[in-house]
Amino acid sequence: MSTYTKEDILGKAKELAKMIATTEEVEFFKKAEAQINTNASVARLMGQIKNLQKQAVNLQHYQKHEASREVEEKIDALMAELDSIPVVQEFKQSQSDVNDILQMVSHTISNKVTDEIIESTGGDLLKGTTGSQEGCSPGGCGCH
What we know:
Elements: H1 6-21, H2 24-37, H3 40-61, H4 65-83, H5 86-120, E1 136-137, E2 140-141
Antiparallel strand pairs: 1-2
Helix pairs in contact: 2-5, 3-4
């Protein structure tokens, strides 16, 4: 088995990142984001939300709890309106799809590294133990 340097691994990670960046899911995400950025309704709602968020921060700072709660309710209503716009729904779904790919890659790498360590130490994949743990009993190791 070959040994690799950190640079080798980072090179492969960059290659993998380029592959992910050209998936259908990422392409859809980019298109959805472009549509969001040119949608007048989205821009209007985002502007209103940002203004209300600034108000909420000021009201909280001055401990105006009732007014702050009312502003938070307005923000929630505007967020719900924003979320009801189809292009926003598509954008959020595309974000989720891209995140799923990244999570899948991360879990696959993590699981494979663990499996490689177990196998390379003569361990048991089914038990999830490395070879250094073989021969140990629940009451203690007989290796001391």
